[in-house]
Records
---
Amino acid sequence: MASTSKIITSALNGLAPRQKEVLEGRFGLKGGMGETLAAIGDRMGITRERVRQIENAALSVAKTNIAKDDEAVALIDKVKKYIAAKGGVAKKDDVVGFADALAKGIGENQIDFLSEASAAFNVYREDDNYH
């Protein structure tokens, strides 16, 4: 069974401290909710545009790291197949439940991060009419 913390740590490997702080804040990887660009910018003393630039550069590195991690690739592939088996669309709660059975400790924040960093599948905001 894959370890979520190992996959996330591997994805963040090699990032500058500032890049790591931005990704952890944006995706809530240290617990809690993800922060807005403005909130991170205020905390770090930089503009939200600079936070966005740092985030994009960090996601590029994370994508490369994920592609090199066999456990991450296997997990993402299984999630993609699960979503495809559901007709290409699945509720986030269902995807999180499925992924948690494969990699204990995975939650919405980690799914959001893996989706964004790997570009293997998309996550959209859910509401009463769209999930």
---
Amino acid sequence: AFFIDDRLQPLPGSTVTAMVAAWYLDREPGSSIVHNLICSRAVPEIVEAHGGTPVRTRVGHSFIKGVMKETGAVFGGEHSGHYYFKENYRADSGLIAAMVILEQLSESGGTLSELTAPYRRYAASGEINTTVDDQQAVIERVSVAFSGARQDRLDGLTVDLGDWWFNLRPSNTEPLLRLNLEARTAAEVEQRVGDVQAVMAG
């Protein structure tokens, strides 16, 4: 499900995930909220600020549903705009997400752009696909180039450099690597994407 605000700006899936998570946590304090690893870091920040437990997963509905079952999470969201609800058998429902957003909007008395502003904390690259001959070799080259940063291999390679982070993961069906990068500003995103792509190119 995709949402557009009063300024005709699309709401990223991460923004909707954070908003719905906050709504649930205000009603069910201390709950677990599942989010995939390409969601904005604003999502776990907001979950924790509302007293919840953020649970990070691989990309893909089967992983999210499985982790929701294991943790008893009330809600799970993906940056791609899929939202999963415990009360809906952990199934994806854009309609439930829309109803939550509409309730928040009604209670706020303002516009959707005003309501979402506190949840839009960072700038993101969106998913950038690059065709490569050897996915794993490129991932390893990038890992070595950023060896001084915090890294994990939950799904592809995630590198956290403090003010910015990125995930590089292989497509399961095509010879592609998918890059998602987040930083504090759009200008920094553009610069850092160039840095990572330069390493990918060798």
---
Amino acid sequence: EQNKKIESAVKPQVVINKGIVEMTLFDSKNNKYFWTIPVSTYDAFVKWDKDPTTTMEFDSGEIIRVGDFRPFVGTNFSNVIDDVYDNLENHDNFVLEILYMVSTLTIYSLDIGEDPRFAIETLVRGEGDCEDTVILFADMIRSSSHTKDWKLQLVYFDSDNPTNPQQINHVALLIDD
């Protein structure tokens, strides 16, 4: 049933008008939301000279470096996300609605390596891999004034060997409301 909803979803509309990116977003009930950002702000976001990393330790004691995607999560959708929240009954529905929106706004694309994109870039491009879509998902959740005390964690794992990790090859979002 969820796949039928996504297939019949009203697609977002993007217009660049006088230096402003204007996007009309739709939720699963086809409610409209308007989000804008100046092109100059978008350009500033997509120019990133840093390659932040952090360390992770396996149960075996081996320590590896992985991309630290936390600096890419902001609150870029604060001018629209509270409207989404206000149309729903509870926290769970809000999380599911944001997941639905991310799923309809982007196409999952496989990527080799860790080249994270800011949420705005993933949204405008309409595609991203696991870290890109998780960054977009987290940014949209974090953008609501109703989620200020929520704990969001980026969870790195081995999707091929989840119970006996050999490498880090996937990232997901853990939400504690």
